[in-house]
Amino acid sequence: MVLNYIWIAFFLIAFVVAMGRLVIGGDTAVFTEIINATFSSAKTGFEISLGLTGILSLWLGIMKIGERGGLIQAFARLAAPVFSKLFPTLPKDHPATGSIFMNFSANLLGLDNAATPMGLKAMRELQELNKDKTSASDAMIMFLCINASGLTLIPITIMMYRAQMGAANPSDVFLPIMLATFTSTLVAILAVCVRQRIRIFQRNLLLFFGGAALFIGGLVWLFRSMEQEEISLYSTLFANTLLFTIICGFIVSGMRKRINVYDAFIEGAKEGFQTAITIIPYLVAILVGIGVFRASGAMDFLIDGVRMGVAAVGLDTKFVEALPTILMKPLSGSGARGMMLDAMNTYGADSFVGRLASIVQGSCDTTFYVVALYYGSVGIRNTRYTIQCSLLADLAGAIAAIAMAYLFF
């Protein structure tokens, strides 16, 4: 229901702003730009779905082998002490626990191509436990909100973009991104725990968050002693080696169980193909709404208003130039990436704005895209409080990103 209201708001706000540009400013090209945006956004939505088809088929095929071979159940048992607290409605050792664990692990390593198929598989398994097939369950909401909060430890892609844009030290945003995304994820978990009345101060959860903080501190210490080229090299090598090891491990587990590995892969790949077809309308709908909102000039109008408000109360307005990236991030990953690159190109990769845009890009995820993709794959229409909690996490990540930028740079 919330997504329905937001989608309608995109079009109504865009219409009002466009009419203002036409009547007051005499901009006769505004509606042409909007219509072109609808076509290009619809094409982008289809192309994303088409691009996901091969990836989904591959990874859901591999996941089917792991499920038949027993490794997914092993991952479920490994994650059970923490997940049993965050997902209390999940039965013990349910396959969804293993899929969620694999999705989170891939996200932490920045392996988007592997994380999405694993996440979609987790959603299908959660849907099997869902009593109301059109409304998001508590477990789905927790899973989606954590995904939408960012959950990335090693922002390899952002460091590569900064290197391409001529940054003197592309990895100087590594620590601020890690702290900002940790804040975003923590707020997402806390917000959902409050709504679902999950006790936060439980031994397993406190140990998990304490261990996560120590692990992040260790990574910070390790990476601060390395050159940027070494960080990029070792991070990429570790992530890809681990990924291929998982693939081989799944195949070996299938061989040990004496299953037909090839047939298991084909069965999972067919499920991946069907999932890719299912999500096309949902992606097209949300991307068209976002495209219309941006093409109408509503985004620029909002940014100008914020700049005037910040200046009126006497606060520093340097961060406002990075607002396009901040506001675009929950709406569109490619749009936010374009805004980040534009900020670095306009102000310089090593400028305050360029660094802040990079931190924002790595501190949270694209809420509306994630919601449309994951819920659309299983036909969920009532998202309940998913978007509210996810946007709260995005806001926390954005505030943390701004704070980190002022603190470090």
From TrEMBL:
Keyword field: Membrane, Transmembrane, Transmembrane helix
InterPro entries: Gate_dom, SpmA_SpmB, SpmB
Ranges annotated as spanning the membrane: 5-24, 44-62, 139-161, 173-193, 205-225, 231-252, 273-293, 352-375, 387-408
Gene Ontology CC: one annotated term: plasma membrane
Ranges of residues in domain Nucleoside transporter/FeoB GTPase Gate: 51-160, 277-380
Keyword flag Calcium: no
Pfam family, one: Gate
Keyword Membrane attributed: yes
Source organism, top-level taxon: Bacteria
The protein's name in its UniProt record: Nucleoside transporter/FeoB GTPase Gate domain-containing protein
Source taxonomy: Bacteria, Pseudomonadati, Bacteroidota, Bacteroidia, Bacteroidales
